[in-house]
Structure formats: structure tokens, C-alpha cells
């Protein structure tokens, strides 16, 4: 692995010059077309390698290259055959292009551009299709990954393409232009992004179509995220897509395919009831990269600090009598307790003390070992295990991790959180999928706490069991479900089903899909009627997403130890070639057979940078400049200033030499560069403003109550005497303090209710258990004291 791989031997720019992206969003499916413009500025032919990220569940369906006026469209072939063809073409002087998916992580691709003549331009176009995930605020999230962080790969696991990911060192030398077209049967409410956008333009008076462009000057130093808000997002829907008449009879591409989007609706009494039992295991990434900032704007925190704040909220929100434990992991792991313990005041206090001491000081990101240890622990009867995993998701053995989670899916649910730019979507979404949980991504200026507390609400929902899917179709039609069996349902979360329709209808124009399941011993039925007439607007998007889904299922079956491994591989290759979508066993290959030039000696190979900002995680001795174990850079400020004034050029020169000497070491493999690291460390010492919500939550007891004391009064901006003097006679100090805390939350922090909802529920439950009698007078007195207008009914008492 190279440190940068960004310049040629002549110190000139790498050949990638620009990227142009067109996104077409149709309801909740996005078709993305990216054109990469290359130019060879050297005086001899070269080969360029570009390792880049795509969404984990994307179906790559088109790959072409344009040389001058000639366009070459790639075809999907068996990967080994495609590689041989590529090598033969390049060695004989022909232009060739190879696009292949990583065997270790399906969200990493490698593009090889072979034998570009001196001064020649090449435009490479990649098209992929992806489903858009539903967010906590009901928006649909589209992400164009721009940042591909180095993936930590444990010793002994061959990293393949992932090992070629190199750390960035400065701004990328290419530009990005991006345009988005959105259309849907439902009106578009708004579009939001983490990047600057030009004004939104509606193309129809009913707001069902709109366009927007990325504003000029995007630095490509972070993922581009777009959030699409529709009216009535949670309506179930179905899309039927016609097949290709020239495809083989009975094949997936010949028959119609239907995509069903379901949003389960639980009975009202179940929605309001939350579990009071469970074993909650929190697994926190403490590798060096967690010392990076959440974002680069004002008020940013380090990732590890944001994770610690979130742990505080989680620990305060757990129900009394449940079990819990906290793990930290890096190159090794440690747990707060030898095994999960009962949640009470004593164990909560012990855990909170340890949380305050947590640092990003545990080296690399090796998540497999702690997961194996957790799964080896016995489960507690009547306390279902809920696993919460927080990581910036930079590992090289993604598939091995997912196989482990899936093998224990019967004994737990897994909720995963990707922190920061460049987190592996394949790892984060894959763990949640295989562990029957839910995945969240926390990027840019997102607050971690609201998303985590939404997942806690999912974890406290009763488990859905005995899920079945039944189809009712006209005579002559049969259905073959292509999606894996549904093993998890959450209130308000979308579930997708792909199915192949076979045969000829006898005349009926409508089908029905019925989902049945049990919830707290209650039978529940959700049903959707849909039109069998194919839509004309989707092309083959639904077929290709269905093929991708089936290929992923076959891949999982193959890795699970199926007997007919070669047969499954052949089926995957056949599906991939027929549908024209990528897979781990195939690759896109294009050869310009009209181009041929004499190549003397080996081609120069260039790696193209994939990210614009990354973070250093070395501990550097300023005097000797020797690299030690990976730690956040925090040299003494005075020592840094003294050296900087004396030998600024020598410092940077020696730093470069030290990095070069150590770039193959294990410490480098789980480290990332940011030249600004030393200067940033001094800025981190500035005391942030107090978060009054976290201050209040930190004072709550495990039972749900608060003590009446000066620290609580300080949160309210009052003195202890003011609180005590206004206390009604019929309540004691703890009831009064807890009532004031509830009034303050509802009166002053209602916009953050998703973060403190469980804290408030515990408090209201505790007050109810005290049998105080009529609290109306107390609520009135609390409102006067705190300047609020909250009713007793609002407090839930």
C-alpha cells in the first residue's frame, strides 16, 4: 500500500480530471450515472487504478468508455476470464477497461484503465441502481460516497482490493458536478443536503417532479448526501415491471418482476407498550480513528466524545432490572464487566465512571474478536439480547464479520451505527440486516443521540415472530419470491419484497400480497392490493435490483457451507451476465480492439486518490520523529511551537521520511493522515459550552428520579433555596425535583424529545409509583417557578 499514490514520477497530477454525476430518483429507487474523465499527461502509455466506494446494495448495470468519438460498451463476464482478457489486451498495446467488485466488501470497486496513450483522453461511464433508505424523519437518503477511508485488516486475512486503499494527503485533484432529477406519484415536499445546492426547481404544478444541482466548488472531502421528503411517505406501494422478450423463456429477465414496499402498522396498544426486559450490549469503537472530529464546522466534537455522550443517554434510558454491558474494541478489546450485569444504581454508576475515562487509544479496528466473545456468553432467559455497535466502519474483513452475525441471528438483534465520513455501508447495513436490527449513519453535523435513541425504541419494541407472506393472483399466474425470508419488522420502517411473476393471467388485473405475523401473542395482518399492469417508466431497474438481491442471497448461501458450491457460483455468474449487473464472481470488461501500440517495458501504474480529507493517528516524537503505536496526535503545544519556529521545513521533511519508512507497518494500516493534526489538537482544548440536557440527564437516578440539590438547580438557572422554598407541602424533595425535571424537559427541550423520551418515561413512571395523589397544584407551582406552561397530561403522569 502506498501513502498517497497521487502523482506521477514527474510529480504531475494523476490522470483523473473530473467526475460528472446524474442522479434520477424515481420514488425510492435511484439510478446514478457517473462519468469519469481521464487524461494521460505523461510521455508514455500508462495504466491507472481507481479504487472507489459505491453504496453497499448498489447494482452496477452499465460500464462504457469513450475514446475520442468511439464508445466501447463493456460486457459482464466471469471475473477470471475478464482479468485474463484485460491483461492480454494491455500487454498487446490495446486500450482496455476493467471494473470489478471487491471480494471482501461489496461497497468497494476497482477500475483499471489500461494502456492510455500519451496525451490521450478517456471518458468512463458507470451506471448503478440503488434503493433509498428511510430515515428517522421519514426522508429517503441518497448518498454518493466520496470518502473511502483506509480499512483496517487483521493479520492473516487477505485484503485484496481493500488493501489497495491508500490514505489521502490533501485535496483531490479532480472536480465534481452533480445534478438530480426526482419524480414520484407522491408530491415532493422538499430536498435537503449536507452540501450546498442551487435552488430547487419544480417541473410540475403538482410537485411530483423536481430538479436540483450541486453548487459549484464542492471539495469532494465528504460524502454527498441528499434527503428527499415526500408527502405520505409511509404508504405501501407496488411496482410491476415488464421483462425482456428476447431473454430466455422462464428466466428472471424474461418474466415480469414486482417490487413490494410495505410499512407495517402495529396496533395502537402495542405501539405504546415498550419492553421492560432485555440484555443490552453496547460495543464502542475505540480505535485511533475515533479521535477524529465528527465534522469540521463550529462546535464539532471528536467521535469518541459524541459516543460517550450517547452512552450516557442510553444508560439513563434503560429499564430497571434489565441486563447490560459495555465493550470497547480496537486492536484488542475490553469489557466493563466480565459478563452482563443487572441494571441498578450501583452498576449504572460504575459504568458511567468508566465511560468518562474512555479514549480512542486502542489501535486498529478489529471487531471480529469482541463479537466472538460476546456471542460465546450465555443469554439470559426472558431477556432478549440487543447488540448496539458503534464504529467508523473501516475494516477489511467485512464478509467474515457478517457471516458471524448471521450465524447468531437466532439469539439477538443487532443495531449498528456508522460514524463519520467513509464508514463502510456494507459493514453497517450488513450487520443490521444479518442481525435483524436497524442501521443508522451519523455524518457531517448529524447529532448521534436522536438516531441512537430511535434505534433504542426499535429495540424496546416487542419482537415480531411467525412472519409469513402470501400471494393472491389471477388464475394462470404463479409467483416466485426472490427476496430472502423476512425475519424482522419494525413499526413504520419499510420492508421490500421482490418477486418474479410466471405464467399468463386468465384476465384478472389485480394481485394481493398479505403479510401475517404475531406481536405480543396477537395475530396481525397487513395487506396490499396492486395493479398487475407493468409500468413504463422504470426500464429494467426493478429486474436488476431483484437480480442483485438474489445474487446476494446465493452468495450468503455459498459462504454458509452449502454442499453445491460450484453450482451456486455458476448460478450467480449466470444471473449476473443475464441481468448485466455486477457480482463478486464477475467483472465488466471493455477492450478497444482498434487501438494497438507498441509498449516497451512495463506500463507505469498510477493509483488515483479517492478521498480529500483523512486523519492522522500517529504518536510522533517531535525530536526523533519515530512512529510509535497509533495514538491521537496531541504534542505539548509549547514544544510544537518551539520546533516549528526553528525548523519548519525539516519537520515536514522528516515527517514524510518517517511515514515512508513505516508505511508497511501494522500501525500504518489502521492510521489515516491529516497534516493539520498537530494544530487541531490545541483547538480541541477549548472548553465547549455545557449541554444542559446532558447535565440534567447525568443527574437522574437509575430508578428515574432526581435529588433536590444545588446541581439540579444550576441546570434550571436557579438556586437550591429557590427550588426548596417553592416546594408544595404534600410532596417530598425527590418527587418535587423529578416533577421539575419533567416540566423543564417538556417546556424547554421539546425539540429534542426523541433524545430524552425514555428518561421522561422512567421519571413519570417513578412519580406514579409514589402514590402522591393529586399533582395538579405541584405542576402549577413548577410552571411558575420555571416559566413554563406544561399540563399534567402532557407529562404522562
Automatic annotation (TrEMBL):
Residues 1-130 form the VIT domain. Residues 279-456 form the VWFA domain. Signal peptide: none annotated. SMART domains: VIT, VWA. Gene3D superfamilies: von Willebrand factor, type A domain (3.40.50.410). PANTHER family: VON WILLEBRAND FACTOR A DOMAIN-CONTAINING PROTEIN 5A. This is von Willebrand factor A domain-containing protein 5A-like isoform X7. It comes from Carassius auratus (Goldfish).
